[in-house]
Amino acid sequence: AQTVTQSQPEMSVQEAETVTLSCTYDTSENNYYLFWYKQPPSRQMILVIRQEAYKQQNATENRFSVNFQKAAKSFSLKISDSQLGDTAMYFCAFMRHLWGYTDKLIFGTGTRLQVFP
Amino acid sequence: NAGVTQTPKFQVLKTGQSMTLQCAQDMNHNSMYWYRQDPGMGLRLIYYSASEGTTDKGEVPNGYNVSRLNKREFSLRLESAAPSQTSVYFCASSEGIDRGLEEKLFFGSGTQLSVL
Q1: Do A11 and A113 form a contact (C-beta atoms < 8 A)?
Q2: Nearest residue in A to B45, CA atom
Q3: Looking at the complex, does the CB of residue B92 fall below 8 Å from at least one CB of chain A?
Q4: What is the rounded average pLDDT of the residues B5-18?
Q5: Using the beta-carbon criterion (under 8 Å), do A9 and B92 form an inter-chain contact?
Q6: What does DSSP say about strands B4-7 and A64-69: parallel, antiparallel, or unpaired?
Q7: In terms of C-beta density within 10 A (0-12 exposed, 13-18 middle, 19 or more buried), how is residue A21 classed?
Q8: Integer Cα distance of A10 and A8 in angstroms
């Protein structure tokens, strides 16, 4: 079975600074996807960034980037130039790559990020 | 662009009552999911349907039943509600065909359920 662990229940950062959210996972699979989802107070789930396990290059989406360490089974999210709108709950998630069709998402427990002015 | 629609948005039940949460998607997706979200627990998968006509248990299926009524609709039923089922419930859907990084999971806006 796959598990996803987010060891930081809460984080805070000053506006314009950089913050890193941690995520580790456990799996015996070799092919999989990793995701970061953002959930603002509106409860909407928003995909922030995703990574394919077989790609060594770290994914980047504007101010969001990941540090993917496959051997260590680590997938951290870095938010640069933090903005007030980044205040939200952030979930790390894992999905097995089953050739031809997608599998279910397994989520971590989340990290609540507060950005202060 | 409706996406994934969940009803109701809020519900209060008494212990022992039954109810059905409705979910519909208009994106012709094959796969649909029900998650529950609890503080400190993240989102946990209750049931999912990889395709029309199939359903499978997730991490926390006890106390729930599901029906994949057709390709669009996937309902979640609580036969005899318990206070432990107080939670926020999310329905989600995905195309279900491996498109690599193009594959996305679309979420509904959630149902806040309180069981007294």
Answers
A1: yes
A2: A106
A3: yes
A4: 96
A5: no
A6: unpaired
A7: buried
A8: 5
